[in-house]
Amino acid sequence: MIGDRILITDKSRKNAKEIVSLVKDNYIVLIYGNSGSQKTETSECLQEELFKNKKQSIVISLDDFYLTHPMIRNYNRKKLGLESVGLSEIDFEDLKRVCEDFKNKKPIRIKRTHKYADLVEHLSLETEDINALIIEGLYSGYLKKFGFGDLAIYLDGNPQQTLEFRKLRGKENEDDEFRTQVVRREYNTVCQLKKYADLIILYEN
Questions:
Q1: I want to staple 63 with a disulfide (CB 3.0 to 4.6 A). Which of 1, 20, 47, 55 is the partner?
Q2: Any idea of the CA torsion for 164, 177, 76, 171, to the nearest 10 degrees?
Q3: Partner residues linked to 153 by β-bridges
Q4: Cβ count near 203 (within 10 Å)
């Protein structure tokens, strides 16, 4: 998502180095885990590591496939209740189409959401020379259930471990009780997707 702050760390780089040798040609890599587990940062570092190995990749974010824009998402969640938070917020049908097109070496049509403006970009990207598609986000591992994703990486970490990193990225307000409840519900959902992982990387590893 355009406008989301990222913070590359030594841990992000270490994660990428652990993953890069596992990525084969025409692979879809799913990087998922709890909020603040450095999914975005790990994906960016993996893209760089692949490039060093003469492999081109595209990174797309699950954040761009929410059915509601971030400017109104919190309002909707409060209106509909905490039970509305989870997998149903994501346009997985659109993501499946992207995966199918990538596997067939067709152009992929993706969206990029602007966090601080009511704007969504629509892009078409050629994939003939692209070696890997990296999909990062809370629930991206869910795509494995539908047969998409050659390599699913689960970045482990509980809410207490990852809170400080979320705060550094400016994503958390400890005084916002509703946000705290949202993060807890997201975490519970993500934990249920851990079973789809091909590799689990511990937060403190």
A1: 1
A2: -20
A3: 31, 199
A4: 18
The CA-CA-CA angle for residues 92, 98, 102, to 5°, reads 145
72 vs 69: CA distance, rounded Å: 6
CA distance 5 to 129: 29
- Listed in order, strand segments (DSSP E) in the chain are 27-33, 57-61, 108-113, 120-125, 132-136, 151-155, 199-201
Token pair in block for residue 103 = 């596997």
Helix and strand numbers (H, E) in the chain are 6, 7
Residue 126: closest CA among 146, 140, 138, 110: 110
- What is the Cα–Cα distance from 120 to 104, expressed in whole angstroms? 26
**Average model confidence (pLDDT) for the chain?**
92
Dihedral of the alpha carbons of 14, 149, 73, 116, in degrees to the nearest 10: 50
Total-model pTM = 0.93
- Please give the C-alpha separations between residue 174 and each of 62, 137, 143, in angstroms, as whole numbers: 24, 22, 31
Rounded CA gap, 186 and 159, in Å? 10
What domains are defined for the chain? 10-201 (3.40.50.300)
Query: Which tens digit of pLDDT belongs to each residue from 87-96?
Result: 999 999 999 9
Host H or E run for residue 169 = none
User: For the residues 3-10, what does the mean pLDDT come to?
Assistant: 89
